[in-house]
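Check out a protein:
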Amino acid sequence: MASIETAYQILYLSVLTAFAVLIGIMLIRAVIGPRITDRILAVNMLGTMVICSIAILSRFLGEAYLVDVALIYAMISFVAVLMLATTYLPADPKNPYFPAKGGKKTRRRRFGPDENGKADGVRRTEERG
């Protein structure tokens, strides 16, 4: 029976070490980006890995209250990622008044007529003043 406990302790420590390395990698990814979606996804993955680490640590130490801490951390992490996503990501990128890459606001028309008045099914954008 002692050998099974020792095997479990080795397993818990190795998984916690792997999660520590992955958390470090996700911290780097959250800092360097390059896009905001990469950063938000890294923060979400970071929260998930911390929750898993707390749950494994709870089993390793035999402390049941750490599961409650992990559940509370899961709720806080969910709300934080939700707030980041609603703050930094557009609600509707297909909105005709969504800013284009150049910073100018453009209005997208679907399948509108070209300069000669013919509708050829091509999307066009026009600059707004």
In short: The chain has three helices and two strands.
